[in-house]
Amino acid sequence: MNDKIKSIIAASISTKQALLANDIMISLIDDCSNIITQAFKNGNKVLFCGNGGSAADAQHLAAEFSGRFYTDREALPAEALHCNTSYITAVANDYSYDVIYSRMINGIGKPGDILIGLSTSGNSKNIVEAFKTAKTKNMITVGLTGESGGILKHISDYLLNVPSNDTPPPNSGVAYYDWTYYLSVSRRKIFWIMHKDCIILAGGLGTRLQSVVNDRPKCMADINGKPFLYYVCQHLMKFHFCKIVFSVGYQKDMIIDYVTSHRDEFRFAFDFAEENEPLGTGGAILNAMPYSDTEDFFVINGDTFFDINLDQMVQAQQEKMADCTIALKKMEKADRYGIVHMNDDQFITGFEEKKSGSSGYINGGVYCLFRNSFLNIPFPQKFSFEKDYLEKYINERDMLGFVQDKYFIDIGIPEDYQKAQMDLPNFFDV
Prior knowledge:
It contains 15 helices and 18 strands. By secondary structure, the protein is an alpha/beta fold.
């Protein structure tokens, strides 16, 4: 019996290893996650169907979309088609078991919806008929099958055929276990796009700016009649963030009052992580993290505006499996900043202290962090994110550089504060 157990586990491992080595299949899975994401964005739904153990897997996957997967978020429209037993038994009795899914697809399927069918053989009659009907409704079909693919191989828009046909009764063996597991990896990406959180470090005093702005936090400095924070938040709204956490300390009431009184201007939920004493940039992030629950989350300096594509940034992080991604800007005159060095794969190899006459890539004050990796470090309550995380753990964490040649400004000095007065209103309707 022990040998039998070991052989079953070994078969599952072997299947996963085969998937891991198949770059074409991994790329195809990524494509499927993209089309599912786009369907949700377009207001479409995802439908699942299967038989026996495959029905159980279909129900499991649908539940992860419409319920909770890792994080709290809005429900996503997904359904397993076999869950209405009155319908299933009536149609099977009055018509045929072969049409239980196709008939429902004909009733509720819409153009742009996605149908995912699970069938080890790829020949399950009711799944095949459902796919045919889905085609007439201009739906997108994804087949999850065993190695051969069967009929579904020829009629699916996307076929994910796991390299196994091991399906002991009741039709729920290695193949479906592996698809349930493997698709869950893609769901991290899907759920990021549908649920994005950002922490804004808004508690800075702004010592160098005191000569022109001495009565408020830097992020509340007036830029053409609007606080600098307004422009930062407007940029975030372009990428449909669900929640913004404002990390506040110095004159925090000013920030809280502004955000709450202007809630109609911002299409996102928000919360405030308050510091009773200065915690440093790293301590501020840790203090704010309980207010967000996404696996990958952004951190942005409240006195910096960097007009980069944040969706592309997190996509780069996930494709490279990075622990932290830093937005970088190439500057010919970088005297105010340190220089960031990268290798040919865009991973960061070192940080150089600021010095006169330097040029190169600078830290743009925008970060994407992988939660679990960050929390695995035993940080003190107060610490510097730049010194005590980025520089200290550069050899223990995969840190990716994300370079974009976009507009960048840091209002930390009077000259750039004045420049922002002219530049930033051009980005938005102010």
